[in-house]
Amino acid sequence: MTSNQGLKISDDQNSEKAGVRGGSLLEDFLLREKITAFDHERIPERVVHARGAGAHGYFEAYEDLSALTMAAPFSEKGKRTPVFTRFSTVAGSRGSADTPRDVRGFAVKFYTDAGVWDLVGNHIPVFFINDAIKFPDLIHAVKPEPHVEIPQAASAHDTFWDFASLSPEVSHMIMWVMSDRGLPRSFANMEGFGVHTWRLVDAKGGSRFVKFHWKPVKGVQSQVWDEAQKTAGKDADYQRRDMFESIERGDFLEWDLGIQVVEEKDEFAFDFDLLDDTKLIPEELVPVRIVGKMVLNRNPDNYFAETEQVAFCVSHVVPGIDFTNDPMLQGRLHSYLDTQLRRIGPNFAELPINRPLNPVSNNRRDGFAKNTINKGRVAYFPSALGGVHPMHQPQAVDAFRSYAEKVDGHKIRARSTSFTDYFTQATMFFNSLADWEKKHLIEAIAFELNQCETKAVPKAVMANLLVNIHPELAAGVAEQTGLDIEECKRVAPKPVVTEVAAPKEMPSGRLKVERSPALSMDKVTKGIKGRKIAVLAGEGVDGEQLGALRSALEAQGAVIEVIADRGGTITCSLGKSVKVDRPAVNAPSVIYDAVAVPGGKSAEKLAKTGLALAFVAEAFKHGKPLVFMGEGQALIAKAHLPVPAAGAPEQGVTAGTAPAAVAALVTGLEKHRYHNRDIEAVAA
Ligand code: HDE
């Protein structure tokens, strides 16, 4: 051990004192160095997206896209570009839990051979507002209320819904966040989106519009609200732990990258404005073309140095990627650099996690914590004195040049009417959901409105947003909140919006869809790699059944955890010793995707154990597949799980033995959840 000056330290555990019981000496420079370093350990947390986790990996191009863009990652088939990706929640502080209802950040730093490109997106394809100047208001509204700093990481409070009720452009995004999309099961189960319409530019200067999509190989899967709340208490680090552990065991996180390309000539072909980030381009109108994949395969060595200090900027682009006039994107171009200067300082780009792979050469100098030792007397351009010094490169084809978009307009502070269709896509989203998804969405909005203390707030949400989105939505929320829709309409204050007439060529209602099946999560994903199955066991568990479950499920990449009433080992019916992965008190049901209860002596005891019965009932309530084998079947009745009526749809509760039980678990895990169960009477 040494000091920061390289001095060998003889004793790091005792400070220097005037006698063994005397006062500490000011002279003790080792004590002071250690404590001062500690005092300065924190940097300001991100004002939004403070809670996050990241990983390293690579992006691999499936094809050569040079006809569309000169962006380096797409220049040849099979080319690999290193990446660092950080996932985050938006509203909570750095120490908040992983599973609140919230938007998730999905920020990817590509270390390309033409410089750093940051694609700073979210896990939802649209945003709440469509002018950057409203962002501080949105965030002040959603963050804990300033007089009491309550609630942490939650939109379920007055100020958020007050703001929302007066900003009808939030409608579409509200639908996404209040649906189960706002509760991702894990990072690996989230989609990612560039959100804004970006530009792809080819080597000849041709340009087209693009939307970026990350499609998770493991499928899109979510928790349910009760589960997410419990997870926040039982394992606040649930998602970052899940990512860390899966990478450590070699189960890497993977996404396909897709693009939706719209040629310039089609800019006005849609019934919405491509520059309005509260709209998405339905995949049924412009298919998503899969062009590459991202694999996250290496955990950071140090959270602070990498995940906390990584500095994403929307302005970090490479030749081939350019901006559009989306007013949110334009505002973000300013915000991200500004925030990194505040958070990390002027030399943030020199930190290992932020450095480009290619050499940096310019006349930017000095500032706090400068790392580079610039040599020579010349720090300006042009110069004949310096010999070899940085030259700009007017001739270089691979140098960055802004797309020469024609700009012509009056200075004006207003919103185009092409941005003011607030409800069509919100309605499309609602129409696209399965019945259970609609039910969860209605319950979520009702939950949040019921949390509001000021009665006028939910009324304004009903009158200004919900009734305009869908009558079924409005009626469902009215029923659960006790709101009277007609009264809401009478008393609600009207939103304030500044609009100007859109130019003639603006959207005219041509290309649109009423329903976009791509938006529903009611899908089956093939494969169960990385899914976690709780096996409730104990002394005398049926060894054959446990063995059959384990070998069949582990062969498919699933993770089995044996849970018993204590840690250490148990002995199965075959006399073999079985390792207990978690004692029951350390094993909440919410961290598992499915439950299996093998037979044997252990099952008799479990059927009389409150913790085990609660575990099973809770997993049932959250829609998870359950398998009961042999004596384990006793738990079905003891946990009061309703037995489905004959002919009812498949409920994902199986009583049987391997291999049928294993097959049922696999089918259930691929389906993810059974949301058509009758859960009202289940006490959990
Ligand atoms: Fe951000 N956003 N944002 N944002 N954002 C930040 O930058 C901002 C927006 C997003 O893992 C901040 O480094 C403004 C949309 C992600 O480090 C800050 C506006 C989208 C992350 C900032 C938006 C995002 C941030 C805070 C309205 C989806 C985390 C810390 C114009 C496309 C990146 C930081 C990470 C972070 C500003 C809206 C995504 C203050 C002004 C839309 C994923 O610069």
Automatic annotation (TrEMBL):
Cellular component annotations (GO), alphabetically ordered: cytosol
Domain of life where this protein originates: Bacteria
Keywords per UniProt: Heme, Hydrogen peroxide, Iron, Metal-binding, Oxidoreductase, Peroxidase
Transmembrane segments: none
Residue stretches making up the Catalase core domain: 2-389
SUPFAM superfamilies assigned: Class I glutamine amidotransferase-like, Heme-dependent catalase-like
Active site: H49, N122
Biological process (GO), any one: response to oxidative stress
Keyword RNA-binding (UniProt): no
Annotated InterPro entries: Catalase, Catalase_AS, Catalase_clade2, Catalase_clade2_helical, Catalase_core, Catalase_immune_responsive, Catalase_large_C, Catalase_sf
E.C. no: 1.11.1.6
CDD domains according to UniProt: GATase1_catalase
Cofactor field: heme
Catalytic activity: 2 H2O2 = O2 + 2 H2O
Pfam families in the record: Catalase, Catalase-rel, Catalase_C
Family: Belongs to the catalase family. HPII subfamily.
Task of the protein: Decomposes hydrogen peroxide into water and oxygen; serves to protect cells from the toxic effects of hydrogen peroxide.
PANTHER family associated with the record: CATALASE, CATALASE-B
The protein's name: Catalase
